[in-house]
Amino acid sequence: MKLLLFDQNLSPRLVERLADVYPDSVHVFSLGLGDAMDIEIWQYAHDHDYMIVTKDADFSEFGVMKGFPPKIIWIRRGNCSTKDIEMILRENYSAISQLSEDGKTGILTLF
Q1: Which residues contact 96 (CB under 8 A, 6 or more apart)?
Q2: pLDDT mean over 67-79
Q3: Which of these, 9, 44, 79, 91, is most buried using a 10 Å CB contact count?
């Protein structure tokens, strides 16, 4: 499975909390991209074979306009805790794994 790149709008703690199921994933802050524009994050993910995990609609729009990779995991739940995000990603491991391998799908929307 491709590695996950967590966007600015998600907690950096997710990297450690999910290391058992998504090892070697990273947060934009740890890459020095904490203040980067969305398009820069998209390009980094593209160049380094990451799937972007975000709550930001902009990445979904990039996926429609530019295609994929990178693939986008778009979390569409309003205000919620880091634990909620962790559970969403754990519960959807199978769907995320399928997204990673599917050559025809570029966006997975999770609620």
Answers
A1: 1, 51, 73, 89, 108
A2: 92
A3: 44
Q: How far apart are CA 38 and CA 30, in angstroms?
A: 16
CB 108 within 8 A of CB 72: yes
**What is the amino acid identity at position 34?**
G
- Cα–Cα distance, 26 to 50 (Å, whole number): 9
Name residue, tokens 């994933």. 25
Q: Which domain holds residue 70?
A: 3-110
What is the C-alpha to C-alpha distance for residues 81 and 49, in angstroms, rounded to an integer?
27
5-19, 26-40, 51-65, 96-110: least confidently modelled range:
51-65
